[in-house]
């Protein structure tokens, strides 16, 4: 590898990571504003014009807040748990094509790489629940482990149909395969399963059982404070961005958009970001609309409905591919 190649990889990494961190900072503000207006209130208004500096104020508060560690905690694991979550989320950026021919690593197994890292990210929640030596945290960790195992299966199976349609697990190839039509129209069942599984994977409402405030205080994050709590916060919102990007690439055509009239000159990355933020808005809409599921309902939905549906979708997709070959 030449020095020029190393420079370009470093530049791509720098751009991708900063895009993600900027997203994490302001998607929280976006969520508070959106849900505020959905509930007939204004959201953050005090720090900066219309509260635009609120994310910076929150970051400074968390950064300088006292870091309290329980006396009976398993300290090495307690320290490393939030770091695992952030690293796994940021590492997923390596294979996401932000626009045509721009990705840090153009892997032929990009989907498998992202699914593997999402599984690694679940360890941060499980380890945090174990290491805190708290009943609430431990129950949150147990819930997360069962939830992630259940919905990882349905998510992976939902993406098999996409790989069959595009004949590739490379994310750039999947986007190119949708230049004529988006897979949301040919794989609607897979898209629905993916969306629900992504919400469960990121522990978002109505599937936020690992951190349910009503019965578990804050679940796995109960004993965390200061910047370590902030890292969990960062990992959750980075995970939302990653799942939204994966859904956009696999079902909404990635950077493909209308190529006529006033839309012809719109940069490819604009289409990609608009779709990603549309998916993130859907996260917020769901949170403001639906009540939390019971845990038995969550498990039944995954094992009795989503996994059988995903398997049936694979069979139907295979039959269509054979008959139309």
Keywords:
325 residues, mainly alpha, 69% helix, globular
Provide a descriptive summary of the structure in words:
With 325 residues, the protein is mainly α. The protein has one domain. 69% of the residues lie in helices and 0% in strands. The mean pLDDT is 86.
The proportion of strand residues reads under 5%
Number of helices: 12
Question: Could you say which structural class the secondary elements and strand pairing correspond to?
Answer: mainly alpha
Count of distinct structural domains: 1
Nearest-integer average pLDDT: 86
Specify Rg, calculated over alpha carbons. Answer: 20 Å
Uncertain parts: none
Could you estimate the helical fraction of the residues in percent?
55-70%
Q: Which H/E pattern describes the elements?
A: HHHHHHHHHHHH
Largest sheet: none
The geometry reads as globular
Please give the structural blueprint.
Blueprint: H1 3-38, H2 54-64, H3 75-91, H4 110-131, H5 135-166, H6 171-177, H7 183-186, H8 188-201, H9 213-216, H10 226-251, H11 268-289, H12 295-323
Helix pairs in contact: 1-2, 1-10, 1-11, 2-10, 3-4, 3-10, 4-5, 5-8, 5-12, 8-10, 8-12, 10-11
């Amino acid at each position: 590898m030449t020095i020029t190649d190393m420079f370009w990889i470093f530049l791509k990494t720098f751009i991708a990571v900063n895009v993600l961190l900027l997203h994490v900072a302001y998607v929280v503000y976006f969520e508070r504003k959106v849900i505020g207006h959905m509930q007939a209130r204004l959201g953050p208004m005090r720090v900066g014009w219309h509260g635009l500096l609120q994310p910076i104020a929150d970051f400074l508060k968390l950064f300088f807040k006292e870091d309290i560690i329980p006396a009976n905690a398993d300290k090495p694991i307690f320290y490393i748990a939030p770091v695992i979550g952030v690293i796994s989320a940021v590492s997923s950026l390596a294979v996401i094509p932000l626009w045509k021919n721009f990705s840090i690593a153009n892997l032929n197994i990009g989907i498998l790489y992202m699914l593997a890292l999402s599984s690694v990210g679940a360890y941060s929640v499980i380890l945090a629940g174990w290491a805190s030596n708290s009943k609430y945290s431990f129950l949150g960790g147990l819930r997360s482990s069962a939830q992630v195992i259940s919905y990882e299966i349905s998510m992976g199976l939902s993406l098999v149909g996409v790989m069959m349609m595009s004949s590739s697990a490379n994310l750039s190839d999947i986007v190119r395969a949708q230049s004529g039509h988006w897979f949301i129209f040919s794989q609607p069942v897979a898209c629905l399963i993916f969306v629900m599984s992504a919400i469960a994977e990121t522990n978002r409402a109505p599937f936020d059982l690992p951190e349910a405030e009503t019965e578990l205080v804050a679940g796995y994050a109960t004993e965390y404070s200061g910047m370590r709590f902030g890292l969990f916060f960062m990992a959750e919102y980075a995970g939302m961005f990653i799942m939204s990007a994966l859904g956009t690439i696999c079902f909404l055509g990635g950077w493909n958009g209308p190529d006529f009239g006033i839309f012809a000159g719109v940069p490819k990355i604009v289409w990609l970001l608009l779709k990603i933020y549309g998916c993130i808005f859907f996260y917020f809409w769901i949170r403001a609309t639906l009540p939390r599921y019971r845990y038995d309902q969550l498990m039944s939905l995954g094992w009795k409905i989503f996994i059988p549906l995903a398997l049936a979708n694979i069979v139907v997709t295979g039959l269509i591919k054979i008959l139309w070959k």
